[in-house]
UniProtKB/TrEMBL annotation:
PANTHER family: CYTOCHROME P450 2C8, CYTOCHROME P450 508A4-RELATED. Heme binds at C435. GO terms for molecular function: arachidonate epoxygenase activity; caffeine oxidase activity; estrogen 16-alpha-hydroxylase activity; heme binding; iron ion binding; retinoic acid 4-hydroxylase activity. InterPro entries: Cyt_P450 (IPR001128), Cyt_P450_CS (IPR017972), Cyt_P450_E_grp-I (IPR002401), Cyt_P450_sf (IPR036396), Cytochrome_P450_fam2 (IPR050182). It comes from Papio anubis. It comes from the Eukaryota. This is Cytochrome P450 family 2 subfamily C member 8. It is found in: Endoplasmic reticulum membrane; Microsome membrane. GO terms for biological process: epoxygenase P450 pathway; estrogen metabolic process; icosanoid biosynthetic process; lipid hydroxylation; oxidative demethylation; retinoic acid metabolic process; xenobiotic catabolic process. The gene is CYP2C8. It holds the Pfam family p450.
Length: 490
């Protein structure tokens, strides 16, 4: 038979199979835009700002709808009510982790962020307990964060009020907090290993938010057969894991089971306790991936929020002035801020919440899956179906936050100027998959930003109206533009 005819027949069969798979599943799933064979709805999505496309779809199909990324159907949850009903009211059924092919190549289902089922439950439970034992939310961790806050001040003083990009300094501090918990020791900011780790982390977050990576996750064959930045992403991940493995080996050689020094020691002790359990999840692979995840979750997200927060404060000097007035009144200039101060600083609390709401750091959260067939709002969602929780739709809900496109701390203040909570505040997601490090991140944001504003005034090099605070891309994370800032001692 002519090779061309064979090719046409094969493509025709593939198209028919694609159409059959899509049509056979759509009757049970929520409505959504009609997918094209093989590529699904990819042409109807703005890959640089998928959350904007989801907002448009929700106006046509309602708060729960289906889109196809390639051949795979994905149910999108849009708005507070839909997210609450799924992630909180039906938390167990929606607690699976959706597989991202590029992450699968790197993690192979290990760790805490991208694992699922029994492994995820055990890794999460152990991590929460261990972090708590090492002072998560307690004084010992607060001391560590305060120390890094003082280091930030020292580094910023070295700039002598000259223009600088704060990316590196603001990245070092949260990374060192994680290092103290995981490795027992912090790094000096000029340490070469530390600099390399920071560089690899920052590069991978930039890569992860590019349209190419979104496409690779939709069409996984590209990862194996095409050149591109995904190879650099995998190489950086492998480098970091290799570094962590070396640290694990050092800990194994000096381990004292009666005196655990840090997270790695606790994990190694648990491994020893379960060495006869063939089904144990406490393996070196899970240890390395879990430590890797703690770095990912605890470093770049916090540092990006800090950097974006300073940009917003730079652009809104009237907000900065009110924060500094509150700092002077509650704390003064001669002692370090502490977590007890927060309850007496409603305006600062509102500013921190508004920063996290406004920057919408992870617009669509991390991919979930349903762990069993579930009837949800009169739809039948089959086990294994991917779920996207649109966090943008909650953080930018104009019914809860009037003029959500405007940075306004008043969104979290009542008429008397007291702090006002909002159920829509979900930057850490919600339900059983809520971020493990939420408590630590909130502590760092308060202590780092308060300490900076206690010691420095912020000065822009450009006219405030021309200062750009719009993300350059909204992929996995929102990427803000680089900027220069002067830190003038108070």
């Amino acid at each position: 038979m002519d090779p061309f005819v064979v090719l046409v027949l094969c493509l025709s069969c593939l198209l028919l199979l694609s159409l059959w798979r899509q049509s056979s599943g759509r009757g049970k799933l929520p409505p959504g835009p009609t997918p094209l064979p093989i590529i699904g709805n990819i042409l109807q999505l703005d890959i640089r700002n998928i959350s904007k496309s989801f907002s448009n779809f929700s106006k046509l199909y309602g708060p729960v709808f289906t889109v196809y990324f390639g051949l795979k159907p994905t149910v999108v949850l849009h708005g507070y009510e839909a997210l609450k009903e799924a992630l909180i009211d039906h938390g167990e059924e929606f607690s699976g982790r959706g597989a991202l092919p590029l992450i699968e190549r790197s993690h192979k289902g290990h760790g805490i962020i991208f694992s699922t089922g029994k492994r995820w439950k055990e890794m999460r439970r152990f991590s929460l307990l261990t972090l708590r034992n090492f002072g998560m939310g307690k004084r010992s961790i607060e001391d560590c964060v305060q120390k890094e806050a003082r280091c930030i001040v020292e580094e910023l003083r070295k700039t002598n009020a000259s223009p600088c990009d704060p990316t590196f300094i603001l990245g070092c501090a949260p990374c060192n907090v994680i290092c103290s918990i995981v490795f027992q020791n912090r790094f000096q900011y000029e340490d070469k290993n530390f600099l390399t780790l920071m560089e690899r982390f920052n590069e991978n977050f930039r890569i992860a938010s590019t349209p190419w990576i979104q496409v690779c996750n939709i069409f996984p064959f590209l990862i194996d057969y095409f050149p591109g930045t995904h190879n650099k992403f995998l190489k950086n991940g492998a480098f970091t894991k290799s570094y962590i493995l070396e640290k694990v080996k050092e800990h194994q050689e000096s381990l004292d089971i009666n005196n655990p020094r840090d997270f790695i020691d606790c994990f190694l002790i648990k491994m020893e306790q379960e060495k006869d359990n063939q089904q144990s999840e406490f393996t070196v692979e899970n240890l390395v991936s879990t430590v890797f995840d703690l770095f990912v979750a605890g470093t770049h997200t916090t540092s990006t929020t800090l950097r974006y927060g300073l940009l917003l404060l730079l652009k809104h000097p009237e907000v900065t002035a009110k924060v500094q007035e509150e700092i002077d009144r509650v704390i003064g200039r001669h002692r370090s801020p502490c977590m007890q101060d927060r309850s007496h600083m409603p305006y600062m609390d509102a500013v921190l919440h508004e920063i996290q709401r406004y920057i919408d750091l992870i617009p669509n959260g991390l991919l979930h899956t349903v762990t069993s067939d579930i009837k949800f709002r009169n739809y039948l969602i089959p086990k294994g179906t991917n779920i996207v929780p649109s966090l943008t739709s909650v953080l930018y809900d104009d019914k809860e936050f009037p003029n959500p496109e405007v940075f306004d701390p008043g969104h979290f203040l009542d008429e008397s100027g007291n702090f006002k909570k909002s159920e829509n505040f979900m930057p850490f997601s919600a339900g059983k998959r809520i971020c493990v490090g939420e408590g630590l991140a909130r502590m760092e944001l308060f202590l780092f930003l308060t300490t900076i504003l206690q010691n420095f005034n912020l000065k822009s090099l450009t006219d405030l109206k021309a200062l750009n605070a719009t993300p350059t891309a909204k992929g996995l994370v929102s990427m803000l533009p680089s900027y220069q800032i002067c830190f003038t001692p108070v």
